[in-house]
């Protein structure tokens, strides 16, 4: 049981971490065209594009930072639904992909609140929410700490107590 949970955890972390890697063609072009000292900055810029949405679109971690785990899970486990929602919003509202992704992430996180803001006439830039570097660091520290605590409780403490009770 513990081995299965560890394997699933590693697989999920590997899936999430794979989103941080830029497409192979962009990495190859960055390696061949950038001077040696600029390679790190090119790679860092692609990571920032992944989160802050300055490129064509942002990845799953960008959804997590902006609106939390609900849009992330929809994006990972129901990609057809997510993609269809984004493209329909782009066509309906005539906005770019980043704006559509930000709005759909906000919708999936809180449909009623998102609809209420749209009906009240407030026009928020949802794709810019949560991309402040200080907020991202705070979110990462808190999220990592809570995740570590929960994993420790469920993978170490509870099985240890259960094993002690059965002896």
Verbal overview:
- The protein is mostly helical.
- The chain has helices spanning 2-18, 24-33, 39-52, 60-67, 69-77, 79-93, 97-109, 111-120, 133-165.
- The protein is elongated, with a radius of gyration of 19 Å.
Keywords:
167 residues; elongated; 9 helices; single chain; mainly alpha
Structural class by helix and strand composition:
mainly alpha
The sequence of SSEs as H and E is HHHHHHHHH
Distance between the termini: 18 Å
Please tell me how large the radius of gyration is. Answer: 19 Å
Which consecutive residue ranges, at least 5 long each, have pLDDT under 50? 16-47
Overall residue-averaged pLDDT value = 75
- How many β strands by DSSP? 0
Task: Give me the number of helical elements.
Answer: 9
How much helical structure, as a percent, in the residues? over 70%
**Dominant shape:** elongated
Major sheet: none
Overview in brief:
The chain is mostly helical and 167 residues long.
List the helices and strands and how they pair.
Blueprint lengths: L1 H17 L5 H10 L5 H14 L7 H8 L1 H9 L1 H15 L3 H13 L1 H10 L12 H33 L2
């Amino acid at each position: 049981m513990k081995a299965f949970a560890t394997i699933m955890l590693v697989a999920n972390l590997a899936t999430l971490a794979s989103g941080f890697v830029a497409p192979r063609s962009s990495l190859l072009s960055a390696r061949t065209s950038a001077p040696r000292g600029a390679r790190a900055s090119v790679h860092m810029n692609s990571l920032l594009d992944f989160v802050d949405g300055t490129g064509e679109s942002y990845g799953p971690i960008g959804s997590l930072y902006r609106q939390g785990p609900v849009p992330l899970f929809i994006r990972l486990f129901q990609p057809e639904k997510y993609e269809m929602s984004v493209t329909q919003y782009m066509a309906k509202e005539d906005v770019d992909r980043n704006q559509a992704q930000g709005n759909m992430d906000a919708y999936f996180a809180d449909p009623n609140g998102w609809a209420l803001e749209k009906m009240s006439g407030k026009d928020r830039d949802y794709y810019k929410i949560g991309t402040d570097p200080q907020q991202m660091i705070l979110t990462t520290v808190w999220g990592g700490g809570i995740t570590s605590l929960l994993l420790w409780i469920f993978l170490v403490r509870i099985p240890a107590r259960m094993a002690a009770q059965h002896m």
